[in-house]
Specification:
It is built from three helices and five strands. The longest helix is centred in the N-terminal third of the chain and has 26 residues, at about 1-25. Strands 1-2-3-5-4 form a five-stranded mixed barrel. The protein is globular and about 35 Å long. The protein has helices at about 1-25, 70-75, 115-120, and strands at about 35-45, 50-55, 60-65, 80-90, 100-110. Strand 1 (about 35-45) and strand 2 (about 50-55) form a beta hairpin.
């Protein structure tokens, strides 16, 4: 008998919370794409700045400023290559290339790489 009452209370609470959350979701603004953290080695490639991601594939992203940001010019003046934690949004370029619209850089450590191959050769 006690188990049935407890189940009824739990079901009632779940129904109450689920009905309360519906108006909140309905009135919320549409979700905007959030920035993400991209960790890798920042390098120069001609005039472009590249982030070579710390993964086995070593994905490469061209770095550009996010609207209103002025990060890439500061990175051009930094000693590269450097390990970095970049806060950015991913976009696909017209040519299919990977682009990061950089909002800020949390960490920048000149002369450091996160790639095993760099550690073995350097």
């Amino acid at each position: 008998m006690i188990g049935a009452r407890l189940r009824l209370r739990l079901v009632g609470a779940a129904v109450l919370f689920s009905t309360l959350s519906v108006p909140i979701r309905a009135s919320a603004a549409p979700l905007q794409e959030e920035a993400d953290v991209f960790i890798g080695t920042l390098e120069r490639d001609g005039n472009a700045l590249i982030l070579r991601r710390c993964d086995l594939v070593e994905n490469r992203y061209t770095l550009v400023d996010a609207p209103g940001a002025h990060v890439v010019d500061k990175l051009r003046k930094a000693k590269l290559p450097a390990y970095g934690e970049v806060i950015a949004r991913y976009v696909e370029g017209e040519d299919g290339g990977s682009i990061l619209r950089v909002e800020r850089v949390e960490t920048l450590t000149p002369g450091k790489s996160c790639h095993l191959a760099d550690a073995l050769t350097g």
